[in-house]
Amino acid sequence: MNSGNRGLGWDFAEPGGAREEAATSFTPPNPQGQSAVTGVVERNRAELAKIPGVYGVSEGRTPIGDPAVRIDVEDDSVWVRLPKEIEGYPVKVVVVPGGFEILPAMY
Questions:
Q1: pTM for this one?
Q2: Helical spans, DSSP H, in the chain
């Protein structure tokens, strides 16, 4: 169907009449609303938090964007006490000198 392209050869479908094609496969989200790495973080957070110098554990990403377990640490010396991988996910270590402070509320 040619609708309004003035003979340029474009073929436009009427709204709602186009066939959908995905460039990549689609995996619907986890029915519980969380990713698999989130579950790994939740299952391991308490144990990792017991390691001296660990400030936090959260969901992170590798440099190429793959899911990872992010561990925020005090300094480089903590790295040697951490696993390289947890339940098949790589560990991304982030040094946060001085830790985190709660900022005062701004009113």
A1: 0.63
A2: 36-49
